Amino acid sequence: MNDSSPARAALCRVVILLACLCARTTVHAATDYLAIAASMTDKTIVLSGHDLTIEQVVQVARFGARVELSPEARQREADHYGLLLEAASEGIPVYWFNRGAGDQREVALFSGDPMTPKNKAYLEKTQLKAFQRGTIAGYGPEVMDEEIVRAMMVVRANGMTHNAPSPQLSQALVDLLNQRITPVVQSRGTLGEGDLAQLSNLGAAMVGAGEAYYRGERMTAARALAKAGLKPIQPFAADSNALTSSNAYGSGIAALVVYDARRALEWADLLYAMDLNGMNSSITPLSAVVQRDRPFKWLNWNAARVLEMLKGSYLFDADPQRIIQDPESLRASSIRQASAWEEWSALRDTVTLQMNSSDHNPAVRVDLSPADSWELSTPQMMKYFVKGGPASRGKHGYIVSNANWDPFPMANKLEAFVIALANMDLAITMRIERFNNPFFTRAKAEALLHLGPDAGEDLFLATGGSYTPVDLQQEMQSLTNPIAPSGASIVATIEDLQAQTRIKAYRARQAVSTTIDLLAHDLLTATFWMDVRKAQDASREFGVGPTAVWNSFRRVVPLLPEADHADSRPRAMVAASFLKANAASTFVSTTQDMPASQ
Predict the structure, then answer these.
(1) How far is Cα 88 from Cα 467, in angstroms, rounded to an integer?
(2) Mean pLDDT, residues 111-126
(3) Rounded distance between C-alpha atoms, residue 445 and residue 451, angstroms
(4) What secondary structure does DSSP assign to 311-345, as a single string?
(5) Closest C-alpha to 523, from 435, 407, 456
(6) Cβ(127)–Cβ(237) under 8 Å?
(7) Cα–Cα dist 59/71, whole Å
(8) Where does 42-195 have alpha helices with state H?
(9) What pLDDT score was predicted for residue 564?
(10) In what order do the strands lie in the sheet with 363-365?
(11) At 140, phi and psi to the nearest 5?
(12) Terminal C-alpha separation, the chain
């Protein structure tokens, strides 16, 4: 076949087309993957297993901070690992080690000392195979947010200090985080009671199987390890269990939710103060007269917080035009927001405890003896007492099966918070719409801003329009229905409960994101009406925080759409970017201490 033949030409066209398609696919994947901005690589978080904070998870997951294990945590892992090896030597049955997992829990996998040549070879072979199989675990789509996978990794690294990983497994997880090797992880395939699939994806990368992102660039996991100067590990003992028996995927997402939700709630309070300025509102619902009549601590705290933001505002001056009471949505917003704060606090405390305790099966403890609790000396519990020997360096303890994998304290709090957030968002949606009613505003914006009779469209667009807030509120409403309790009897009917924490955590993440979008419209409305009130009386003041936001926002988004020039996106999307880029706390601080946890 010569070079000029029609067949050759057709083949060339096919090759070119396929090349173009491959190129498009590569570009599309790179565009979809949301790599982190690693701006905190000079910071190191010490993981002790006890005091990891939400803020530290974000520093590692979102900003690339490094991690290291505390000496205490390393020693605890070493003690537990020794106890695990010693338990097998003493003939104690250990789930998912010398006994099988799931419906194989009564099947003996090996007997005696795990360090004999035969047992050692068996464990090395089976553990490596288990890690390699991690490439096919779970179901897509892939997790495209690097911060979610890194949050899962740091939560697991911290929680695993309570378990019995091999030294090489423990170090590998630290190394992957510090070198920013982020495995490709599938988003689905977990029932929320042990995120086995996602953590198996992570384990595959440790042995050089599958794919990973190295500092944002996708490649084979083996190449990523090589570029970072690392070697694939040889897992041992019960490493596949030590890594995967955890809810770190759901817990990591929940930690990000808690962090972002606090920023959203802080903006909700500040924007509420700005709305009150824009409406020329009566501040009586926030006053001590009202708050002392109903001493709910979170309600009292939030009212005092918003009141302090308004200090110096013209709202405290007498005004004959001010009506005696605002629409219900403005009067009750502090109550709705305080209630959301209360649920946020409960979620924060639960997620923090979840991250700093063990959700692993089995439980391994070297700090307990038969005399420490009455049941520990009974014949049933003594079956799982490791007396201690060479492998454990003489230390004794217990290794017992459990249900710590059930994350329902956190799962319930996630759903409760979303419901509280949706009720807050309803009040925000309603108060945005109330600004369209002159009965409440007692002012005509177009007249005070000296706009012509055809200014209706500009006024509609200036506040982002009235349709999207309702759309967003209805989106929030769709997220409030709890996941129906259900059970599927799987794995030979052994595993018959599911928590679906994955769905609940992602719902909460979406709810916080939607709330920010709604608050962007609130920002447009509040700043617009602050302009109106200033045009109505140039001597008016709004308080330090509201004024700072108003001035800063006006430098980004002008009063009227026709003056827009820097950004072609819808004004509300620019406003949302403003809220995400700036913390409300940079504009205002209050002296009100958040109520103590229950």
Answers:
(1) 65
(2) 97
(3) 8
(4) TT-GGGS--TTS-SS--HHHHHHHHHHHHHHHHHH
(5) 435
(6) yes
(7) 21
(8) 54-61, 71-89, 117-132, 146-159, 167-179
(9) 56
(10) 363-365, 397-400, 385-386
(11) -75, 180
(12) 82
Domains and CATH numbers, the chain: 46-246+363-400 (1.10.275.10), 254-356+407-586 (1.20.200.10)
Task: Tell whether pTM > 0.85.
Answer: yes
The H or E element that residue 218 is part of is strand 217-220
Sign, CA dihedral 136-140-145-149, equals negative
Q: How would you classify the pairing of strands 211-214 and 217-220?
A: antiparallel
Report, as an integer, the average pLDDT of 78-89.
98
Whole-angstrom Cα distance, residue 108 to residue 106?
6
Q: What are phi and psi of 308, to 5 degrees?
A: -65, -35
* Phi, psi (degrees; rounded to nearest 5) at 360: -100, 145
Q: How many CB atoms lie within 10 A of CB 162?
A: 21
pLDDT at 28 exceeding the cut of 70 = no
Tokens 């049941």: give the residue. Answer: 375
Integer Cα distance of 264 and 296 in angstroms: 22
Q: Which residue has the tokens 């390890």?
A: 225
User: Over the stretch 41-76, which tens digit does the pLDDT of each residue have?
Assistant: 999 999 999 999 999 999 999 999 999 999 999 999
Of all residues in the chain, what percent are helix, strand and coil, respectively (each to 5)?
A: 60, 5, 35
Residues 6+ apart with CB under 8 A from 330: 275, 276, 279, 281, 431, 434
Q: Is pLDDT above 60 for 112? A: yes
Q: Mean pLDDT across the chain, nearest whole number? A: 92
pLDDT, tens digit (0-9, with 9 covering 90-100), for 387-436: 999 999 999 999 999 999 999 999 999 999 999 999 999 999 999 999 98
Question: What phi and psi, each to the nearest 5 degrees, are found at residue 212?
Answer: -155, 165
Helix 571-581, helix 501-536: angle, nearest 10: 110
Count helices and strands in the chain by DSSP H and E runs: 22, 10
Cα 57 from chain centre: 9
